[in-house]
Amino acid sequence: MSNGSSSNNNNTARFDAARRVAIFGGTHGNEMSGVTLVNLWTQNSAEIQRKGLEIKPFITNPKAVEKCVRYVDTDLNRAFTQENLSATGGDELPYEVQRAQEINRMFGPKGSAEAYDVIFDLHNTTSNMGCTLILESSKDAFNLQMMNYIKKAFAPASCLVLLNEHPLLKYSTSRSVAKHPVGMEVGPQPQGVLRSNIFEAMRVILKHALDFISLFNEGMEFPPCTVEVFRVLERMDYPRDANGNIIAMVHPNLQDCDWEPLNPGDPMFQTFDGKSIHYQGSSTVYPTFINEAAYYEKQQAFVTTRRETLAASAIRKA
Ligand SMILES: CC(=O)N[C@@H](CC(=O)O)C(=O)O
Ligand SMILES: [Zn+2]
């Protein structure tokens, strides 16, 4: 097989060796762990080198990094739409759209056989999510096996998996140019700040991820497994007035409680005069990205998720 996977009679999915891997930092210029790690590895890549692997650390939004802002013109991690990638206009286009086109040329083209095999995109969140890996597809056995490997290698510390394949809430990420896109989201960490614990956790998870890829490339077969994921269900906005100003905050019972169950009737917001606003859903959900600073402008106080167990077939190099 030249691209993607196929199944043989043993239901072992075959994937090509993952030879070309990129590590993106600075997709958001104020998320400092990824920026710092990628800069470090650009200077000295010994730590991320693996035999038979070409690994490219890369700062995706250098202008935003320089200014220490999320983005300059528009969010780079929403910019990889087919429309943007084929837009004409050159210098006239928003900076991040130009940048998305360059990145697509270097690491893609998105959806093609020439695209990079794996892209890790390193992010930080102000919410109390801990270590989270983000997937865009429940069907990618290679990525699911990678999640299973990382979770086991990282235990007893925990690393959760957020799955965003929601038809409306999914967005066109920088990593989406790769065949196997993997987001990494570690928090809590304020924007523009480096915290050693968050930095080290990200570094260790990436080490396990690269170890998985080299074992796979060496021909190791990974038996069928299951992976617990949290599937994105719904975006919850802050209550707002007619002018769009928020009129309530995340409730203290919910603040910092990422991944903990939110039941119908539980408080989720608190108005400035102390009134609680309760969750009206019909079933228990698991909120995450609670009070993420970057999401105020996106009208999102948190996202709800549902816990699911996904099955991954065995995989082996083609
Ligand atoms: C806080 C933050 O930037 N989160 C990322 C999540 C992701 O990479 O999918 C984003 O919104 O692009
Ligand atoms: Zn980010």
From TrEMBL:
Any single Gene Ontology cellular-component annotation: nucleus
EC number, as in UniProt: 3.5.1.15
Gene3D superfamilies, sorted: 2.20.25.160, Zn peptidases (3.40.630.10)
The Succinylglutamate desuccinylase/Aspartoacylase catalytic domain, residue ranges: 18-213
CDD domains: M14_ASPA (cd06909)
Binding site for Zn(2+): 28, 31, 123
Residues engaged in binding substrate: 77-78, 171-175
Keywords on record: Cytoplasm, Hydrolase, Metal-binding, Nucleus, Zinc
Residues annotated as transmembrane: none
Cofactor annotation remark: Binds 1 zinc ion per subunit.
Active site positions: 185
InterPro entries xrefs: AspA/AstE_fam, Aspartoacylase, AstE_AspA_cat, Aste_AspA_hybrid_dom
Residue span(s) of domain AstE/AspA barrel-sandwich hybrid: 226-306
PANTHER family linked to this entry: ASPARTOACYLASE
HAMAP family associated with the record: Aspartoacylase
Family stated for the protein in its record: Belongs to the AspA/AstE family. Aspartoacylase subfamily.
Name the record gives this protein: Aspartoacylase
Organism the protein comes from: Gambusia affinis (Western mosquitofish)
